[in-house]
Amino acid sequence: MIGTRNVRKAILRALLEPAARLADAEGRWDHTARLAIFEEQKSMPWAAVWEHYCERQSVPAGLGWLNVRRTHERDVVIDAR
Questions:
Q1: From first to last of its 81 residues, what are the pLDDT tens digits of the chain?
Q2: How far apart are alpha carbons 16 and 37 in whole angstroms?
Q3: pTM of the complete model beyond 0.85
Q4: Phi and psi of 57, rounded to 5°?
Q5: Cβ neighbours of residue 65 under 8 Å, at least 6 residues apart?
Q6: CB count, 10 Å around CB of 9?
Q7: CA nearest 41: which of 58, 55, 20, 61?
């Protein structure tokens, strides 16, 4: 579960990356712009997009999934013994 969520987050961050702007700056050999765009990207609010995605999928964002997982383990896994 942890791995799947992290892969999805990585894909989301890659999709939100300003790749075209970075490539344009690199193509023009404008290292200052490339560095500025790269640094600005670090503060992009990708977490807000992730939370919205989780909300639309009706799953908890943040560490809320951990409680759901523990409840599932208690109710399903332990009861199966």
A1: 778 888 988 898 888 888 888 899 999 999 999 999 888 888 888 888 888 988 999 888 888 888 888 888 888 876 665
A2: 13
A3: no
A4: -90, 0
A5: 1, 5, 59
A6: 15
A7: 20
The first and second tokens of residue 53, run together, are 């995605």
**37, HSE (Cβ side, Cα atoms, 13 Å):** 16
Is residue 47 within 8 Å of residue 6, measured between CB atoms? no
Residue 58 identity: S
* Farthest CA pair distance, the chain: 64
Q: Which pair of tokens denotes residue 3? A: 């791995």
